[in-house]
Specification:
Distance between the termini: 28 Å
Order of helices and strands: HHHHHHHHEEHHH
Number of strands: 2
Number of helices: 11
Strand content: under 5%
Oligomer: single chain
């Protein structure tokens, strides 16, 4: 027998999504050097953030003329200027490394070691266990289930076997009609919240996996 649930109705479940991105931030994902020039990358990020050259120049304490030259390749940025631009454009750390490489600089943000990753997993697992008897889980940046406590499987009862194939994607599991969707009392509100979070991720980084989840 399956029961209905209301998501987001307790502080513990609210805290769940405060830790969802922790593993994403420390995943040992190989860095890919982007072939595009620095100016092209900068312009794309500025347009994605819906900022004019004047807006960004003022925020970075520069001039519109200098920013225009950076975007067209007529001027080369310093490391300090890249840091200012990236900060004001809210560019993720992986993509800041890409900007640095495109400008001829070494990456500033190193990848984590396996030892550090295991230590972080242990810390997150302790947080998840502290949520008992309430279900809690942690996901990677694509919302695939990475860790959970022992209360979570109780919510899976009645879900499609297709949705339970590894890696289990929490967005599909929660929103799919063959998953938990029909049993979520505040489904409309939760779906709207989830789509809002996915949209924010896409604004930060054009990830094809997240685009696929958003379309579904």
């Amino acid at each position: 027998m399956t029961s209905q649930v209301k998501i987001g109705s307790s502080l513990r479940l609210a805290n769940l999504f405060a830790i969802c991105y922790l593993l994403s931030a420390i995943q040992n994902v190989p860095m890919i050097v982007h072939p595009l020039p620095f100016g092209v990358l900068l312009r794309r990020w500025r347009e994605r953030r819906r900022m004019t050259q004047t807006d960004l120049a003022l925020a970075a304490e520069s001039s519109t003329r200098h920013l225009s030259c950076l975007e067209t390749g007529r001027a080369q940025p310093s490391r300090e200027m890249i840091a200012k631009l990236a900060e004001n454009l809210n560019i993720p750390l992986r993509d800041r490394n890409t900007l640095l490489l495109a400008a001829g600089f070494a990456p500033a943000f190193r990848e984590r070691t396996v030892t550090e990753l295991e230590a972080a997993k242990s810390a997150i697992d302790r947080v998840l266990q502290a949520h008992l008897p309430y279900p809690a889980f942690a996901v990677d940046r694509h919302w695939n289930l990475i860790l959970s406590n022992s209360a979570l499987p109780q919510l899976y009862e009645g879900c499609s076997a297709e949705l339970m194939r590894l890696p289990v994607n929490s967005v599909r599991l929660l929103l799919h009609p063959a998953g938990m969707g029909p049993r979520i009392v505040n489904f409309a509100a939760w779906r709207a919240h989830t789509l809002h979070v996915l949209r924010q991720q896409l604004e930060a980084r054009a990830d094809p996996v997240i685009q696929g989840l958003f379309r579904k």
